């Protein structure tokens, strides 16, 4: 599936993280990749994150999945919306929606959330901390866009939903199947289903906060620190007041902390692991039958093709000498020479051919066996 009537360069220059953009007929020959019944079925699974938002007379009410098979047959007349996170993890057809957006680096992409709504259904006016592409898959939805918001924007008191207390519509569009709306972070918006059987696919992006990264990186530094240097002041001199923490002491203490955090190469390796962590690490994608290097060689000799698990997160960082560090679901693998080229290829595509020659390269067979056994990659049936 390809984007049409869309220029990525113009979009990145004029719209990305700047202002909303409506693209009519964004996809050539659009076909809805998931049925409402399939979405409801996913919401009944324990490993799938889902919620219902019902627009009761007293205001919106949220319920959280997994839901029973009979829950959707029991819905009353009040407008309601079902939202299911990371549907791309469980549906190859939905996962295919990510490919057109890979002009943005993979590590920035989070998941594809899918919603189904009855007439008048919606979550309510809100804003997100991340970029989102809203693709109309089935039926129609009216999107209203307002101004910029931040952490100080007043919210409606609610235990489960972060809804804006004040929302002023600045622009409004009715989206048909195949239309798409881009909304930058912090821009208020509200979607309302017009008619039943309204399905929307939300391609969301990640934007790690400084606090999140600092907390995890500091933990990593402490865990991996070979030695824990102590404060020293061999040139200490008398000071006028013993109660003062002197500027010299503050400078030394500050330098101690900054030095511990200042290794850029170590930061890069940490971020590769951090950014490639699985969205739902508790889900076990491990292969039922364990691979060995011998079975891997046999499969390669028979012309099998490697496929990436849509739920897996892969990335790489260039190293000196043309080598790369491959990251997969929070792990790192050193890849050298021609195997580094294969790692780049695997990160760039959802499938890759392998041959026995590749498996003779240093580190190639053990790395691929590990990825296969963890379900990060798999062989096609062909």
UniProtKB/TrEMBL annotation:
Domain of life: Bacteria
The keyword Metal-binding appears for this protein: yes
Record keyword Magnesium present: no
Gene3D superfamilies: 50S ribosomal protein L16 arginine hydroxylase, Chain A, Domain 2 (3.40.366.30), Cupin (2.60.120.650)
Named cofactor requirement(s): Fe(2+)
Keywords, comma-separated and alphabetical: Dioxygenase, Iron, Metal-binding, Oxidoreductase
Annotated ranges, domain JmjC: 93-222
The protein's name in its UniProt record: JmjC domain-containing protein
Lineage: Bacteria, Pseudomonadati, Pseudomonadota, Alphaproteobacteria, Sphingomonadales
């Amino acid at each position: 599936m390809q984007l049409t009537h869309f220029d990525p360069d113009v979009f990145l220059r004029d719209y990305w993280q700047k202002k909303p953009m409506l693209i009519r007929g964004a996809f050539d020959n659009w076909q809805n990749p998931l049925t409402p019944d399939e979405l409801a079925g996913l919401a009944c699974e324990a490993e799938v994150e889902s919620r219902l938002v019902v627009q009761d007379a007293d205001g919106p009410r949220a319920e959280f999945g997994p839901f029973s098979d009979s829950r959707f047959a029991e819905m009353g007349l009040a407008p309601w919306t079902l939202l299911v996170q990371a549907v791309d993890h469980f549906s190859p057809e939905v996962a295919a929606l990510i490919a057109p957006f890979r002009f943005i680096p993979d590590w920035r992409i989070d998941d594809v959330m899918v919603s189904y709504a009855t007439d008048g259904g919606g979550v309510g006016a809100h804003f997100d901390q991340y970029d989102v592409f809203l693709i109309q898959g089935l039926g129609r939805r009216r999107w209203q866009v307002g101004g910029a918001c931040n952490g100080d924007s007043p919210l409606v008191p609610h235990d489960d939903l972060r809804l804006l207390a004040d929302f002023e519509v600045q622009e409004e569009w009715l989206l048909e199947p195949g239309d798409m709306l881009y909304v930058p972070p912090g821009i208020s918006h509200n979607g309302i289903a017009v008619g039943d059987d309204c399905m929307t696919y939300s391609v969301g992006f990640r934007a790690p906060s400084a606090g999140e990264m600092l907390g995890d990186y500091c933990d990593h530094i402490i865990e991996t620190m070979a030695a824990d240097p102590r404060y020293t002041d061999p040139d200490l001199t008398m000071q006028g007041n013993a109660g003062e923490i002197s500027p010299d002491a503050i400078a030394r203490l500050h330098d101690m902390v900054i030095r511990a955090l200042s290794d850029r190469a170590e930061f890069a390796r940490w971020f590769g692991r951090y950014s490639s962590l699985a969205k739902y690490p508790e889900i076990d994608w491990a292969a039922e039958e364990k691979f060995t290097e011998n079975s891997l060689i046999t499969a390669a000799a028979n012309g099998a093709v490697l496929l990436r698990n849509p739920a897996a997160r892969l990335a790489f960082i260039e190293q000196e000498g043309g080598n790369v560090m491959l990251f997969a679901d929070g792990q790192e693998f050193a890849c050298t020479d021609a195997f580094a080229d294969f790692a780049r290829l695997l990160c760039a595509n959802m499938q890759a051919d392998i041959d026995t020659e590749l498996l003779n390269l240093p580190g190639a067979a053990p790395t691929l066996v590990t990825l296969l056994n963890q379900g990060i990659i798999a062989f096609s049936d062909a």
